[in-house]
What we know:
Strands 10, 11, 12, 13, 14, 15 and 16 form a 7-stranded mixed sheet that branches. Strands 24, 25, 26, 29, 30 and 31 form a 6-stranded mixed sheet that branches. A hairpin with a 2-residue loop joins strand 18 and strand 19 (495-498). With 942 residues, the protein is α+β, with helices and mostly antiparallel strands.
Amino acid sequence: MTEYNHREIEKKWQKFWEENQTYRTEIDPSKPKYYVLDMFPYPSGAGLHVGHPLGYIASDIISRYKRLKGFNVLHPMGFDSFGLPAEQYAIQTGQHPAITTEQNINTFISQLKNIGFSYDWSRKIRTSDPNYYKWTQWIFMQLFNHYYDRTADKALPISHLVEQFAQGGSAAVNAVCDEDVTEFSAEEWNAMSEKEQQLVLLKYRFTFPEESFVNWCPGLGTVLSNDEVKDGVSERGGFPVERKLMKQWAMRITAYADRLLNGLDTIDWPEPLKEQQRNWIGRSQGASVKFAVEGQDKLIEVFTTRVDTIYGVSFMVLAPEHEWATELTTVAQKADVEAYIKWAASRSEVDRMAEKKVSGVFTGSYCINPFSGEKVPIYLADYVLAGYGTGAVMGVPSGDQRDWNFATNFGLPIIPILDTQKDTDQQADNTKEGHYINSGIINGMTYQEATDTLIKWLEERKLGKGKVQYRLRNAVFSRQRYWGEPVPAYFKDGVPYLIDEADLPLELPKIDKYLPTETGEPPLGRAEGWKYSPPAPNGGVNSEAPIGGWGLELSTMPGWAGSSWYWYRYMDPQNNEAFASKEAIDYWQRIDFYLGGSEHATGHLLYSRFWNKFLKDLGLVPHEEFAAKLVNQGMIQGRSNFVYRLKSSDNAKPVFVSFGLKDQYETTKLHVDVNMVENDVLDTEAFKNWREDFANAEFILEDGKYVCGWEVEKMSKSKYNVVNPDTIVDKYGADTLRMYEMFLGPLTDAKPWNTNGISGTSNFLRKFWRLFFEDQTGKSKLVDAEPTADELKVLHRTIKRVEEDIERYSFNTVVSTFMIGVNELSDLKCHKKAILKEMVILLSPYAPHITEELWTALGNEAGTLTTAPFPVFEPKYLVESSFEYPIQINGKVRANLAFPVDMSKEDIEQSVLANDTVQKWLEGKAPKKVVVVPKRIVNVVL
């Protein structure tokens, strides 16, 4: 081979890896395991842009490095393939989402293979495959059939709960359940009908249908999560979103609130992400208090972390969606209240919580402070959420700034309750110091004494109790869409039941359109025969079932269902008897290195931790936490380019001014496709061919070039700054792309994509190639000679730095180390196999194609580089045998002399004074003193 041809070399080795299944992984008890995983992508029609591979390259480097270190590495890839984009396309075109999804997956796989990732493609999964979602449905069924037992502090079968009810009624149970559960005896339980018992059990099951307020998007026909809503509209499509009470399946993630909190202390995840989860879970210690409504048989219950401030309450605030909002509204206030409720319904939870402007409306009703007996006006305000706590908040303006703002806005009293509170007419003071005033039974007490006294008073009168509350709410588990996992449940007399496990997977049926029915039901309502008849106990036909069977659930599971357990399926992807075998799970255990975006902190990552803890309780997996180490990669931003059009130019002959000259003219700035720009210089011919209206364009150049302006922006098609990695790979090679993306900066930082420096990375690989081959002839330069001390020093310094930096995920500094090492070996004219063999191994995780080629050029068997032993750093090669001392005479350096590092001060002094150059500067004078600082400097003082 005469020159480094990246196209030929990369295709050759990608074909070799595929044909030889180089990266196929099997259980091997003789080796330690290491599990590396990327958060799997949604296969969009646009394919990859250069920002997407950043994390994949880093995880691939880790995978290849760990193989070289002797680990059996599991590094799979799959696709989170249910979702809105494919379904929206199906609605527009009538094409089944499975078809576009499969096409998009094939595009992704082609692009990923083109970059040389070491994935075990035999383990490929996609969440929309019935063989996969069979097990998502199976896990859903286990959740339905279990509850959380507080005494056991784990999930237990619902059959255990039934036994306790039958023997001791509700008093025999200490379980997580709905707030509105009523007490009953064993006799009352045993006398209940099947339907009555099932309705009680729904209040305990981990998954259950309930009415809850959701982000309903009529334009998309589905419920959206909070992170899918931006500024009151859907992130996808920009459709209006409203808060709506709907019947939804929910997951009782709240049962694991404490374990989710405590588990964060056991995992090596980014601290900002862990803090996000802590805040989302939001554990609060406090008390519940019941306020009677004046003139009505109702009690408004609130949760407060500051029950000590109860005498400072001057108003009550309910969420606009509160179930009693209209009942508490007087005739005089009806119009104002209805208008406010309608306005609040148009705003997302995120918008409401972020709002700084005070808003609210008086209902006209009052409640009674249980301690003071005073009347408290009841308002509605959008800063209170129906789904958080009880949907009611007591307003204490002297101690809470938000309440102070509200009270000030509506002219409500601000009552000081501690003798240390200051300037409460100017702002709230939330101190707990001092003694209580204006506070009835706790006057004169301090904080802890007052809190204990008030809680005891409430509990004695059954008007409240001490309580721990969480911000975390049960997770909505429904989508009113077609393209998702069918819920394996049917409804008999309004009560949900599971289908028989033998009937899994419950596959998506064919339907005529992917839209809701004319009566507003989800798209599955269009399916013919979407019903279920369970088998009779004796295996025959179930005589109870109506003709055709009972109706199956019409909603599908949310996008996070299939991604909450997928790492286990990679362990054993073809298993038809279990989601993964015990042998596979016992060997692979959990993820050792997980890489993905921080935007999943309170979505995928929290839900996955919940499901994993549940599976651990069932004895199906060995660890509480599914990923020991998590790294969040930063985003690669777009680097946009601009051209400057003369405002005076006509449409027939537009004129564009180069960047350096634009201030001399009146111009309009326009985005230009970055793929026709290199080093900010525009390919003017490509530009003229880009758009018909630019075909006759003229250019005012500087130094014969058209120079573009630039800005860092989000990578998007509308800004023409999307760079397809296929283009970069074709022009520079996959190895160059891999190294360059790592070289851009620290993995966890955001950085702009900029092709201006990519040629330097490409040149580095060519320089490495030239250590092995002659440029013109392609003749090998390799020799078998023994390495010199200088060559060994370069090699072992490189080994040390590369290993240290990969271990701490400093991938960008490793590239710098490679460049320095290759430059030094080039200067030493080193072509020795003993040195270059080790350098090839070191570089292989970053640039796998060129190193495979050079590995065979060194005489090694093709394919053996993947598992070659990682070079061992030997400190002895970095030990300096001599040190070059700067020799100062009266403070000025006059010479540099090298002496052995173990030479004594006395011998160094004698050698310095005997040196001809030093003697010349001494001019025959005897020095007053000679100061020798070992391995630093020698100073001769005259």
